[in-house]
Amino acid sequence: MLKVLRPGLAHLLTPVGKALARTPLTPNMVTVIGAVGMTAGALALFPTGHLFAGTMVCTGFVLTDMLDGALARITGRTGPFGAFLDSTLDRIGDAAVFGGIAIWLATGGHARTLAAVALFCLVAGGLVSYAKARAQGLGLRCDVGIAERAERLLIGLVAIGLAGLGVPYVLAIGLWTLAALSAITFGQRVHAVWKAAGAGSASTGSAGTASASTGPAGTAPASTGEGGASRT
Q1: pLDDT 10s digits, 119-142
Q2: Does 94 participate in catalysis according to the annotation?
Q3: Where are the domains of the chain?
Q4: What is the spatial distance between Cα 35 and Cα 47, in angstroms, rounded to a whole number?
Q5: Which of 65, 68, 86, 90 is flagged as catalytic?
Q6: Rounded-to-integer distance, Cα 167 and Cα 172, Å
Q7: Is 2-200 assigned to CATH 3.30.1330.60?
């Protein structure tokens, strides 16, 4: 849902990326700085009940993490390892946010049920990302889902930050909503891969049948059945 904002964000971050390009920092270094800062902030502040401060720190490092892509494009330092590093460290940052809030809910927050919901959000978010990565590893497209990482992080941090300001019920509403959206997104991706895999299997099967039915001289048989080529 936030994909429509990405071109605008990229435009805003380009001047900062150009400034960073004149420093010794590399895109991978920016990625690591953002992930370490976000993880440290979430695990140091959320479990101790500093929800608003933790949200501000995490938001700041999320914005920092977004600079790695802009810097990579400007310097031409794009590559598979950078993408792997960024995706892997994103999972660590997400785990720190929802793990940190789950610790607080189970201890100082005295809301163990909601702590379990936070852990569900952590696991479901990992599954959503894994489903896409695994599908791409199999050569299948899986660019679907109503709540990708940006949406999940936005909902989670907004709910945590408002809870830190004393807004009642907002954390429960945010976490339950996020849990539902994450589950739906995972289901959407599984369904998309199932459809793509089924279409691929059907295409392979049709090609294999056509090859097997070709005569020794390389000619097709006299009758193949009407409409057979269009079946999937």
Answers
A1: 999 999 999 999 999 998 899 988
A2: no
A3: 2-200
A4: 18
A5: 90
A6: 11
A7: no
